[in-house]
Design brief:
The chain has a domain of about 100 residues: 2-Layer Sandwich (Beta Polymerase, domain 2). It contains three helices and nine strands.
């Protein structure tokens, strides 16, 4: 749990509680309530893991809710080419409750861009650079999208984690 969050108080539907006293059963209800109508699909994978699909237009606000408001820890983001579109999963953990919440954002391949969360979570700068470089997804508002992993002589616009990547290029 991050410094300063253990005594924060929240008001949800006229119920006041202190995060220090949350039970394992409550955190998923709180996340669901706080994200509200931003949630397109809520999937309970098991007792500890939840996948929450949102639109990319709601990404920054949703990340702010999980990270700033609820004090969840940002673990990592992962990007994948799922043939019809790209998908980015933003993984958060509620360490005290031993629960994991992943925001799922689907991105159109015709215009592969999503808002950067680096203004909310500074540590996201690195993983956004990796996903940009390896999948070609543009993170709008990122302060410095530049090469991180690929060699300097790697062909511009060739993304090795895309399904259509041709190794013979």
């Amino acid at each position: 749990m991050r410094k300063g969050i253990k005594h924060q108080t929240f008001n949800i539907k006229h119920v006041t509680f202190n995060i220090k006293h949350l039970t394992k059963v409550m955190i998923e209800d709180i996340v669901k309530e706080k994200l509200g109508n931003r949630v397109l699909n809520w999937e309970k994978k098991n007792e500890r893991r939840y996948y929450i699909e949102i639109q990319k237009e709601n990404l920054q606000e949703s990340v702010g809710i999980l990270f700033r408001d609820l004090g969840l820890r940002f673990s990592i983001a992962s990007g994948v080419d799922i043939i019809d579109n790209f998908e980015i999963l933003y993984h958060f953990s509620s360490d005290h409750e031993d629960k994991f919440f992943s925001l799922r954002v689907k991105i159109n391949k015709e215009n592969p861009e999503v808002p950067s969360i680096s203004g909310i979570i500074t540590a996201a700068k690195w993983i956004e650079r990796e996903i940009w470089e390896l999948l070609g997804i543009n993170f709008v508002g990122h302060p410095g999208l530049k090469r991180l992993l690929l060699a300097e002589d790697w062909p511009e616009g060739v993304c090795p984690l895309r399904k259509d990547y041709n190794k013979n290029v």
